[in-house]
C-alpha cells in the first residue's frame, strides 16, 4: 500500500458518500452482544472517492486529507475494508466462473477516520460497486447483500446510499422516499471515540423504536420530527470526548436548525436553511478551531435516482 499522492488518472470512479445518522435509538441487544438499532440515515455529497483500473497486480494507494492518517495505520478501517471487499467479491465471482483480474485501487480519503459517518463502510460499499463495473460482472442482489453484511453492519446501507431507516443491527433497510435534501455542516474535533466503550456506557438498551416519519418531503416537518428524536450514543460519547459537546454548542450558536452527533461520533452535524448559511458557518467555525474538520455539504433526497 502506498500513499504518495495516489490517484489513478484513468479508470472507473465511485463515490463513497458520508453516512449520516440523523437519529439513532438503541432498542435491544442480541444474545451475541450485537445491539439492535432503529436509525434514520441519509447520505451526503461529501465523502471519499475511489478509482479502479486494470493492473498487472493488486494494489491500494491513498491520497486526500486523511490518507496519511490511514497510511500510518496498516490496520486502519478503510484499508482493511477496501481490500476485504475486493477479496470477498473476487471469491464470490470466481465461484460463478467469472474472471477477476488484478486491480489498482486508489482511495482519496477525504473523511475523518473512524468518525461515526461510515467512512470505512462507505469505502467498502463503493469497492463492491466499482469492481462489479470494472470486471463487468453480475451477482444476485441477495448474494451481494450477504457480502456487504459480512463486511460490517453499516455496509448494506452504504451500498444502498439512499435515505433509509435501518433496523436490526443495521441490515434491515426500509427506503424513505419522502425524505427531503438537507443542507448541513459536518464537524469533527479529530478526536477518536471508542465505539465499544460508547456502547458499554449506555445506561439503557431497550428504548422504544422511532415513530413514523413525515409522509411528504416537507423540510420543516422533517426537522420538527427529527427534533423529537435523539441519538442514544451521544451522551456516552460526550462523556468520553468532551469536545463533542463543545462542537454541538458551536454549531447551535452558528445558526443551525438542528444539531446532533452522528453514529458513535465524534462527527456532529448541523442543518441549515441554505448553502450560503452553511458556508458562512464553516468559515466562522474554522476560524475558531482551525485544526478541526468542517465541511458544508448537501444530502441526497429520498426520490433521487
From TrEMBL:
Gene3D superfamilies according to UniProt: 3.30.230.10, GHMP kinase, C-terminal domain
SUPFAM superfamilies: GHMP Kinase, C-terminal domain (SSF55060), Ribosomal protein S5 domain 2-like (SSF54211)
Enzyme Commission number(s) from the entry: 2.7.1.148
GO molecular function, one term: ATP binding
Binding-site residues, ATP: 112-122
Alphabetical keyword list: ATP-binding, Isoprene biosynthesis, Kinase, Nucleotide-binding, Transferase
Pathway stated in the Swiss-Prot or TrEMBL entry: Isoprenoid biosynthesis; isopentenyl diphosphate biosynthesis via DXP pathway; isopentenyl diphosphate from 1-deoxy-D-xylulose 5-phosphate: step 3/6
Domain GHMP kinase C-terminal, residue spans: 229-288
Catalyzed reaction equations: 4-CDP-2-C-methyl-D-erythritol + ATP = 4-CDP-2-C-methyl-D-erythritol 2-phosphate + ADP + H(+)
GO biological process, one term: isopentenyl diphosphate biosynthetic process, methylerythritol 4-phosphate pathway
Membership in a protein family: Belongs to the GHMP kinase family. IspE subfamily.
Protein name according to UniProt: 4-diphosphocytidyl-2-C-methyl-D-erythritol kinase
Amino acid at each position: 500500500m502506498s500513499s504518495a499522492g495516489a490517484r489513478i488518472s484513468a479508470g472507473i470512479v465511485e463515490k463513497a458518500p458520508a453516512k449520516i445518522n440523523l437519529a439513532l435509538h438503541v432498542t435491544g441487544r442480541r444474545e451475541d452482544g450485537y445491539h439492535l438499532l432503529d436509525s434514520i440515515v441519509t447520505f451526503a455529497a461529501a465523502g471519499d472517492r475511489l478509482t479502479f483500473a486494470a493492473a498487472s497486480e493488486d494494489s491500494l494507494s491513498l491520497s486526500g486529507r486523511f490518507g496519511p492518517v490511514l497510511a500510518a495505520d496498516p490496520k486502519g478501517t478503510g484499508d482493511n475494508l477496501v481490500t476485504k471487499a475486493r477479496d470477498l467479491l473476487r471469491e464470490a465471482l470466481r465461484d460463478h466462473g467469472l474472471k477477476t483480474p488484478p486491480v489498482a485501487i486508489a482511495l482519496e480519503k477525504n473523511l475523518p477516520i473512524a468518525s461515526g459517518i461510515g467512512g470505512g463502510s462507505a469505502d467498502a460499499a463503493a469497492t463492491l460497486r466499482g469492481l462489479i463495473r470494472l470486471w463487468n460482472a453480475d451477482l444476485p442482489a441477495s448474494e451481494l447483500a450477504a457480502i456487504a453484511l459480512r463486511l460490517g453492519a453499516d455496509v448494506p446501507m452504504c451500498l444502498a446510499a439512499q435515505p433509509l431507516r435501518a433496523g436490526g443491527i443495521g441490515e434491515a433497510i426500509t427506503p424513505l422516499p419522502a425524505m427531503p435534501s438537507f443542507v448541513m455542516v459536518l464537524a469533527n474535533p479529530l478526536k477518536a471515540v471508542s465505539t465499544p466503550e460508547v456502547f458499554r456506557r449506555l445506561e439503557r438498551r431497550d428504548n422504544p423504536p422511532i415513530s413514523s416519519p413525515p409522509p411528504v418531503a416537507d423540510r420543516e416537518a422533517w426537522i420538527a420530527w427529527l427534533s423529537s428524536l435523539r441519538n442514544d450514543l451521544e451522551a456516552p460519547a460526550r462523556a468520553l470526548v468532551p469536545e463533542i459537546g463543545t462542537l454541538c454548542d458551536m454549531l447551535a450558536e452558528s445558526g443551525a436548525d438542528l444539531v446532533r452527533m452522528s453514529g458513535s461520533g465524534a462527527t456532529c452535524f448541523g442543518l441549515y436553511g441554505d448553502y450560503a448559511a452553511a458556508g458562512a458557518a464553516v468559515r466562522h467555525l474554522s476560524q475558531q478551531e482551525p485544526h478541526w474538520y468542517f465541511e458544508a455539504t448537501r444530502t441526497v433526497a429520498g426520490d433521487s435516482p
